[in-house]
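Problem 12. The chain below contains 150 residues. Write out its predicted structure in token notation.
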Amino acid sequence: MSNNAATKEDDTYFFRDIYSKKLNTIQDIINSAEEIAKNKLNKISTSQFRNYLDQFIEAKGNTPINPEELKNETSASLHANEKIQFQILRPKFAYTVTRASKSGDKSALKSFNQEIVDKWIKEGLSTKKDLERLHLFLESLVAYHKVYSK
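Solution.
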């Protein structure tokens, strides 16, 4: 196996492990975003992460993170039209990955997109709380990326 293939596989397992934690608490979400920014995606341009966040915020309707929703044990379900807005983001995010400049960076970004963002939108986005958790994750990732980027 080539070194590039090993790196891609390592990235896939790293991101899969992060996602499998379910990122239930606010602290889990923030810590995971920091770990990703520090260890895996620190060579990706900040603008590529801003693209993720900006597209997400646009689909969400430019509303800030709602801390009360994050605290709720029972959260209102997303309406079908709200879910569609986020499903539409999946191909936009895939396009962002294809625009990554360096092949090594592209591989890590692709694994991140497939194993966390895409799965979160497909499988884990059903309530307002889920939406706020993803928003917090993306905002934290952008912030920590700025701190750790090379």
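Discussion. The mean pLDDT is 80. Students who got a different answer should revisit the alignment rule from Section 12.3.
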